[in-house]
Amino acid sequence: MKVVIDAELCQGQGRCFSIAPSIFDFDDLGSGFVIGDGTLSPETMDLARLAQANCPEHAIFIEESP
Amino acid sequence: MTDKPPVLDFATDFDHTDPEWVSDPYTIWEDLRQRCPVAHTDRYGGAWFPATHAGVSAIAKDTVNFTSRDVIVHEGRPTEEDLPSPIGVAPPITSDPPFHKVARRLILPAFSPAVVNALEPQIRALCATLLDDIIFEGVVNASMDYARLIPPSVIRQMLGFPEEDTEMFIKAVHLITENVDRPQEERIELFEPVEAYFTRQIEDHQENPRDDLTTFLLNAEIGGEKLALEHVFGTMILILVAGIDTTWSAIGAALWHLARNPEDLARLVNEPELMPVAVEEFLRYYAPVTMARLVNADMEYLGCPMKEYDWILLGFPAANRDPTVFKDADKFIIDRAENRHVAFGLGIHRCVGSNLARMELQVALEEFIKRYPRFELANEDNVTWAQGQIRGPRNLPLRILR
Ligand code: HEM
Questions:
Q1: Best label site of B126, B144, B150, B402, fewest CB within 10 Å?
Q2: Which of B150, B156, B354, B362 to mutate to test the pocket of ligand 1 (most atoms within 8 A of CB)?
Q3: Do A14 and B340 touch (CB under 8 A)?
Q4: Domain boundaries, chain B
């Protein structure tokens, strides 16, 4: 499974990188981005889901890896 | 307020300055959600108020049908002449696309998490000093003597204005923030001394550039050109108007809550790691900021016959209490893990200062409860709340317990 941020939807609310700094980081404008390729392990899955559940813009998606 | 007739039905004649709304808007909003859910009023020349998360979200994200050219509801229908161009008086909050993005990108880097995180030690020291300065006589006015003084001092520091001007700066700022809903002519007059002070500061920064927000704005460029001085000035005023009463209200409301809920206060004292989660719940439950939009053209929207330049009162605080989005929406749950609150707005106008505001709120609470781990309201009847689009306690006497 992979986590991605839809850059069109992200408005820089800042919730993901506060909740899960090991998975998300922020750029100079304060927008969130996924660190690395976003592949989730069983250990990081719950944290990614928690960040997703706190994004007011619904900009975080968890997808099947290809 | 006395000159206004009382509201009999908030569904058809709402007024956000009515004493009932000011003292407890939450009951009104829940009632509206159940039977409207978009309220209307002929007051202010005509306005709509969506009480649901879905309604607020749709309008906040729809910059085609709604404009931000005026974001504070005031008397009278605006006409084309009253409304500044799509750039607006205070970019980016009063700007629409496409200019909005340009004005916003300009200031985002100055409020990025990296910049804000670096301010933490200064903000903590400021809070400690303010607490030292309170002459302790058993009761502390936590709003006037603490919460109120934090945001302007932080902004003064960021703008790089002299420390000895702090008191004067705070007075000037409140002159602006308390009169945003006055007619334009009155505001211009009231702002004259502020304008003179800002102009002096801008000149000083032009002569002696340094590492601060004023110099940053003076050096900023759009399309290879420096900003017009009015743009620099407008952005400074916006930062004052947007960043001060709002954060003051958030800090005050959180302290009010803790004074009335000793079990939540004890949890924060005993489990400091809970603070970031608690801060989000304070922001959801006591969201201080309601914005406005204007309808761009006659249309049917959310089932309502909207007319060009009708006001929309955009209640982010009401959206935060919608039970279809938040479980037990009317309960304050200090460790609420899933919290998609919209206290900082939704869509392209998301609060530029949200990282800073969160930091101020968190640090202000941490320092206060470190100094005073037990307190209660000294007199419930003496607590007063701000009226208008920013909601928070203005008078907040707390009795410190040993
Ligand atoms: C708890 C404190 C605060 C709350 C609840 C809050 C809330 C909001 C909200 C709801 C908006 C959206 C406006 C809209 O949709 O029309 C907004 C915009 C804005 N806020 Fe804040 N704010 C706070 C503190 C601050 C601070 C500290 C600053 C800066 C120093 C700031 C600067 C701004 C700016 C510049 C905008 C305009 C953004 C744009 O239009 O793109 N705010 N704020």
A1: B402
A2: B354
A3: no
A4: 10-400
